[in-house]
Amino acid sequence: xxxxxxxxxxxxxxxxxxxxxxxxxxxxxxxxxxxxxxxxxxxxxxxxxxxxxxxxxxxxxxxxxxxxxxxxxxxxxxxxxxxxxxxxxxxxxxxxxxxxxxxxxxxxxxxxxxx
Length: 115
What we know:
The protein starts with a strand and ends in a 5-residue tail after the last helix. The model has no long low-confidence stretch (mean pLDDT 89). The chain has helices at residues 32-35, 53-59, 97-110; strands spanning 5-13, 23-30, 38-42, 48-52, 64-66, 69-74, 78-84, 90-96. It is of the alpha+beta class. The protein contains 3 helices and 8 strands. Strands 4-3-2-1-8-7-6-5 form an 8-stranded antiparallel β-sheet.
């Protein structure tokens, strides 16, 4: 039996202006019954991004891109996610790596990787 994993996290909005660095709530979700290979990131508002779980895992170690989503490590304890919309808008968010690792571990507990 599979279990949907949903985790709330906080992310910093990355902008050109140091005084505009807002912290926003983000929802990380994994639903193995819908798509066992994808994770979802819901930003404030209507924006939700789905991409392979493997991209998130790899992006915590090395710069990785899958379609409109790029992820890369930022120092030892943070990671950056960049989202490109079809309309040309870009959102750049900085996360604590430990929150993303915790989420990934929970997804693998929900549905173990096949050998």
